[in-house]
Amino acid sequence: MTVLKSVADVPNSLQKSIKEQQNGKVVKKPLAPIVSTAELISFGNIHVTRGVKRLTEGIPSSGKGSFIEYEGGKRLLDFTSGMGVTSLGHCHPKVTEAAIKQCQTIVHAQCSIALHRPYLELVGRLLPLMPHPSLDSFFFWTSGSEAVEAAIKMARITTGRQQIICMQGVFSNNVHIGGYHGRTFGAMAVTRSKTIYTEGAHPIMPGVFCTPYPYWHQLGLPPSTPSSTLVKQSLYQLDLLLTQQTFAKETAAIIIEPILGEGGYVQAAPEFLQGLRDVCDKHGILLIIDEIQSGFARTGKFFNIEYSGVRPDILVIAKGLASGFPLSGVVSRKDLTDKLQPGALGGTYAGNAVSCAAAIAVADAFIEEDILNNVRARSADLLAALRTLREDPAIAPYILEIRGPGLMVAVEFTSPCSPGAQYDPVTKKDSPKALAWRISKVCFEKGLLIFPTGSFEVIRFIPPLNISEAELKSGVAIFSEAVRQVIGEGLT
Question: Does the pLDDT at position 97 exceed 60?
Fold first, then answer.
């Protein structure tokens, strides 16, 4: 497929309209129809901002269940689920039916005017699923980043304090490998997974302080380091932070993903999360749990925080909540949210009726289709298959770790030049470079859509939660074949 990069390369049928727009002339009729895939991609390369990064140049045309099809007929198993969004696969029939039905009644009923029925019915579906009974006050928004913004605002208003503590690990050279919470102004201020999210945008929101996440990479320790050591080191650094950088009495909240998403799929030990809860209780700090990627059965429980038994003060949700429809939420205690003045929260598309209707169907399907048990069974299959791959003597030296609960699993590979390589105890100078990206690209060629994550050589597995045993087996076979091919190519 030929992909064009400039106006001069665009087919003649489009050039006149594009040039007229660029010269400031008014175009009174629409652009000529774009027929071919190559023309459409070329058009996008010119008119879609360069700030959007893409794994592939193709154009997805349809999806069903665990599969996605691109224009031109290429069909792939989708182990990205749209970055964890299509939790029940593409175009789940019950979700699709609910959305169509809602589109035929009312599409948009703005929350500042009135609360529509799907909004309220969704609250009723979610209440029994919450990880703690104190979480009984809901606000729905559109994206995860917006929900994080609302959580930060809520924490500052209800506590009367300004400072926020987020998770970070500056390994070296100012390379961040911590939490990810979004790219809007407040959310990116508490994001520490990659510097690209804030590059050139400083000064960002003030009042943000960082403490290490209990991840061996962040602490410059080997993968074999006991969890108890990681927890002790991280909680010690938090105590120092509250002594040296931000007064506890001025700190509104600590925000954390119980399992890092864009930071590399790293599960926080229950002892660390309980330690955070103890610190928050001691000092009157709110604990914000970001389950945007890990929530809604993704890790084998409805919410990952359930593994620790820790009570959130504020829970942030999105992605798998509506299985493809834009919807997020902030859930807290009514005694906290009652401190907010009416009008403090809101948004034009907040809690859209169609998205809420889809989310109701998702919640029902989770129960009716026994999704949690499928996640647990397929997780066991996936982890067993990956461990078998690692047992291959030709592969074992290049896999550092296989980790993650449920269907939020990662494989971390070696690298000769990872962030802080000169200090990293697992740097492998004879390792092929860029293993994660190269493997993901070979997987695409072979029929599997899979995506790297984090600053290190990590590939994530986030297939649909209802994926079948046969589909999972097929995807892992493609992945294993790609790993062997790329490693076999050597140090290129």
Answer: yes
